[in-house]
Amino acid sequence: MYPLDRAFIIEVHRGADLDAGTCRGRVEHITSGHTRGFTSLVELFEILAESAGAAVPGPTPSVMQGANNLPAPRPEQPFKR
Known about the structure:
Layout: E1 8-12, E2 25-29, E3 35-38, H1 41-52
Antiparallel strand pairs: 1-2, 2-3
């Protein structure tokens, strides 16, 4: 069984194109209810790693191929525990 303190709902915007490296959406931490938006796969993995308190492997280079065309990420807003 997976611990609920590491459970998330991840909503990906319908316009996401993973082949082009564009991905945005929001993450909701199940136990706290706090949410954060993300504008790239890298930012999504950073949010998950920060929340888990551990390093999480990021997406593969092939997924990030088009990441240079993404808008700048929003300022960091850490989850409140």
